[in-house]
LysR family transcriptional regulator substrate-binding protein
Amino acid sequence: AILALVEAGMGVALVPRMAARERREDVVMRVLEADRPRRHVVAAVRHGAESGPAVARVLAALTESARSFN
């Protein structure tokens, strides 16, 4: 949605690298040459389900995957 606004001439946006993979004809992506910003990511789990073994495995996999983003 944000890239559609940029494409329509409604502004400039900071987007995650994943969003930069989406190519649009009238949008140019520029890498910012500054210290890399950090983002804190959290996992949302339904109340009462956070102690289940399946959820624990998924959270462990997500944690491992998140390490590759730093």
Remarks:
- The chain has a mean pLDDT of 84.
- The radius of gyration is 17 Å.
